[in-house]
Amino acid sequence: MNLKLNVVPFVSVDNMMKLVLTIGVERFLLELAECIEADFRRWESFDKTPRVASHSREGVIELMPTSDGEVYGFKYVNGHPKNTREGRQTVTAFGVLADVATGYPVLLTEMTILTALRTAATSAVAAKHLAPKGARAMAIIGNGAQAEFQALAFKALLGIDTLRLYDIDRSASAKCVRNLAGLGFSITVCNSIEGAMEGVQIVTTVTADKQNATILTDNMVGSGLHINAVGGDCPGKTELHADILKRSDIFVEYPPQTRIEGEIQQLPPDYPVNELWRVIAGHEPGRTGDRQITLFDSVGFAIEDFSALRYVKRQIEQTGLSDELDLLADPDEPRDLFGMLLRAAATPNAA
Amino acid sequence: MNLKLNVVPFVSVDNMMKLVLTIGVERFLLELAECIEADFRRWESFDKTPRVASHSREGVIELMPTSDGEVYGFKYVNGHPKNTREGRQTVTAFGVLADVATGYPVLLTEMTILTALRTAATSAVAAKHLAPKGARAMAIIGNGAQAEFQALAFKALLGIDTLRLYDIDRSASAKCVRNLAGLGFSITVCNSIEGAMEGVQIVTTVTADKQNATILTDNMVGSGLHINAVGGDCPGKTELHADILKRSDIFVEYPPQTRIEGEIQQLPPDYPVNELWRVIAGHEPGRTGDRQITLFDSVGFAIEDFSALRYVKRQIEQTGLSDELDLLADPDEPRDLFGMLLRAAATPNAA
Description:
Two copies of one chain form a homodimer. By secondary structure, chain A is an alpha/beta fold. Chain A is 34% helix and 24% strand. Chain A folds into two domains: 7-113 and 303-328, ornithine cyclodeaminase, domain 1 (2-Layer Sandwich), CATH 3.30.1780.10; 120-300, NAD(P)-binding Rossmann-like Domain (Rossmann fold, 3-Layer(aba) Sandwich), CATH 3.40.50. In chain A, the strands form three sheets. In chain A, strands 9-8-7-10-12-16-14-15 form an eight-stranded parallel β-sheet. In chain A, strands 2-3-4-5-6-1-17 form a seven-stranded mixed β-sheet. A two-stranded parallel sheet of chain A has the order 11-13. In chain A, α2 packs across α3 (112-130) and α3 (112-130) packs across α10 (302-319). At the A-B interface, α1, β3, β4, β5 and α3 of A face α1, β3, β4, β5 and α3 of B.
């Protein structure tokens, strides 16, 4: 038990990398997926709200809070597609867990890497329930920062071992091939989206442009396919032609948010969609037939971050991979905040 | 210019105390008040939203974001009145500034101390426009963590030098007397609220119970008084009898938030109130007569935190009172987040 009330455990980028490597990427993804599934099963016990977004011409900054009544979590995350041109990440994030009973933060952590992991884990959880049984081959359209995490999550949870890659920039595909070498995949880099789709049971779209794009058109999508649509995740940013949506059974995280941010922003606001948590909880079926086209319209939801934050908190308690952050004022007498300041003036190392 | 893209400047509690002491509490309050006034004058250039609150039986956790289109800021803050019984603060807070153009955080700072300072500075800014001219004496009802900051802000901005203190717990008043000794006040500790109100031109109510209380009743409030109502700041938590509100000209920060959280939650939702920023900007008068009762129904608004965060950022750039936090993943090639992880595995100090 931590008796230093001023201290909040902090997981730096460096410690997050050490944590992921200590556990192993695939085991991390598997265990994180279990946490996400467990939290989706108790979906109704969470306070849910669409993320609080601040949009600008260049991108978006979002706060994503949720609480289960005992633990509160939120993530700060940005999305700025132009960032990569200046050597920055499109998406950076950090997150906080807090104790609902006291309001005190109990964890601050980088979440750029963690978001990549939780997004991939959530995709694989959805695919476990929605993809055709025995799927081995997946196309990945868009080979940026998220691609390898998706590949490894689908390998860990579904046994995907055949990848067909396409990116408008061939160097992105080459980077994926390099990074995934020796990790158990058979990989083909393709010259076209159509080529990448040949013979796959799953397609993951994860492109990054902030605009309505048409990565997949209707003619590319054969019966029985599972579409894992990850890239369309804010207003005005979609990846699929609307005709595909109309042929698919659509599964979403939190409908009020997905209707604003997901592929289904192209559809009428009352268009029927299925909630993924109801499938995971066993209230509704996932895939029901061989010819069914299933679509996971992923935008990312606060509960997934909550699961990831709690998982990381447990892991750093076991590994010690965190620093102590002097974040909270802790006067000897709680009402004496000003006195703490006065006493700091009296100590020799104060300025 | 900071070329280490992974690093965010962090102001610990220790460095915040050093910063406040280096600048001096009263000068800090004066300069912060100038920043708040400057931002209130350009009120219309901010994105405004009521805070995002997660209420529980014990308290509330809130996120307070705002942006002026160039800089984005938010504060995490809790309010848990029971905390003091366990040696914790009722209110703790931290805050973040980010660059709207990139979405990258540029400052993380403790805000427990900073919130106390900005709340007091905002109260004094309001009183500058609303209190009777030449006011010298102020009653402070509730002598907890906020009391000394209020006293010093009113001294710095208005020249208040006479304090009349009342708290249900006399040890709280004694703490105030001790902490304010030698700072230029004439202080009387009173046995009753009525006693504390004798001869004052301003009353500050800053009690902490999370319930509808009646700290001031109508008969206590004489003509010409300025009421600085700080403690009522969440649904179900008020300090003034509704009859006082009806005799007062009421000034608020952001009406959609104050109607939920402030004293005016006791009034009909269309009850007329004045916006403080319009007074500061010169669009509307503040106090207009000697017998007028003015009420600043303070709940705290995100723009005040934004002002405080920007002020602190400038000050740490001058004083160097910050640490470097490894918060943002920064791969050599932005799309190669996974490769960064792989390369960390290859470095000798990685686990």
